[in-house]
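FIELD: query
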Amino acid sequence: MKAEPTVRFGLGVPNGGDFAEPNKLGRLAAEAEAAGWDGFFLWDHVIRRQPWQPMVDPWVTLAAIAASTEHIVLGPMVTPLARRRVSVVARQTVTLDLLSRGRLRLGVGLGAPDDEFTRFGEDADARRRAQILDESLDALVKLWTGEPVTFRGEHVIIDDVEFRPTPVNGHVPIWVAGGWPGGAPFRRAARFDGVWPVAKAGGYLSVDEFADCAAAVRGHRSDAGIDGAFDACFVDRSPAGPHPETDDKIGRLAQVGMTWWIDSLDDPSTPFETHRERVLAGPPA
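FIELD: result
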């Protein structure tokens, strides 16, 4: 008898606007855990376009979230490694993984919008950002081993260092984000532990679009001879309480490979307390 697909339920949470208070986010994560959510994933943005919004640092806030919870999976979704030093990210990820006792997922991508780079004098060229991302990922995986590392890339250089301690499970799972339809982000995702696709045209992916994306990543993994567990995340919004249409959608998505349903709290027009009520109501049935 074929086992039913397992789906976990997470929250995609802004680090700005009404959410820009670390203690508030720590309390919300604890409430989400108590309400039955499986994951709490925080944006990594440094600015939001005019009118300017307050923002909090995601890494410091994730530490508060880890300390406020016991079981919920957490992580930045997503962090653009092109504006992060790999030595700092290596230390941050392992520290947060230890603090959370192995609950960290590292979400990565090219980063958007471009002005998060250009307003600070950084190059927003997509090809360059992709090169830094790939080099940084290769370097991180090596640093997490605790073994001596020498790495020579065009953008990332490591000269005979050992980083200890190591992650709780020897490795921090990496989820790669990208705009669908697309190519390179999904070939990149296939090399790691999960994929976080977003609609390149805006809005949310349809079931058929997600199915095409999941199939493409599975194909890349098969071509490379990569086996093992792999997460595929679908971002959408769901109403509180029983909702047959949402339940049917989740079932169809699970059949084509979704392992995480991520409820987005990205709606600045909605008051924080209304978002909190949705969180307290728990994940979809």
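FIELD: remark
The first strand starts at residue 8 and ends at 13.
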